[in-house]
Fold Phenylacetate-CoA oxygenase subunit PaaI.
Amino acid sequence: MTETVTGPARQGTDTALARYAVRLGDDALVLAQQLCGWITRAPTIEEDLALSNIALDLVGHARTLLALGGRLDGTGRTEDDFAFLRTEREFTNALLVEIPDGDFAGTVARQLAYTHHAVLLYEALAASTDPELAAFAVRAAKEVAYHRRHADDWVVRLGLGTAESARRMRAGLERVWPCTAELFEEDALVRGLTAAGAVPAPGPLRERWHEEVAAVLERAGLPLPAPKWHATGGRDGLHTEAFGPLVAELQSVHRQFPGGTW
């Protein structure tokens, strides 16, 4: 027999799960905004379309997760409220998704790290005790699997390409890798939700993630970075200097036309 949790305990779980959903929604939203910067600037028109489609998938993920957060926390906030009416300190995305692109190889390196994490996480979240989050995860895992294949292909292509493309790919990996550990941080929020069966423990996911990305880099003839420091703070609203302008750009149209809907 399955025990149903009600009352204050259920409310506490919903509030915690709301915060967790918003974290993931912020990751997807901010990364989508970053990828949109490549529209008309990508190396080829095919890549322009590919990155645009990936960004659209991520916007869809963000909308679902942020709306779920607004329902679970009892505020009734919509995805637009979360996206356009918060200050930069109120965003809880991981720092990985907000660091500036640098060049195309840097974007590919970030996509490699993010997509392998996202696929593993969403596959595990499909077993969540929360039915809405589980249903979302089933769909999102399939979409992000395509994003992962796209990133893997480009890592191998650049790693085995010219001396210059390999150099840029190595530099991109070294640049983003200090921000990868934050994806697997286990704070009190995550520990509580893991104990409740709502979300997976980060430890096993990190081990599989490490194995997967190492295998891709081996195919590409590239070394696995071993950073001597790890960035953190994004989940607590502490962001990089580049994040303020990025949020301002994201929110500019909505702030010019308050109350507008599209």
Summary: Residues 7-36 form the longest helix (30 residues).
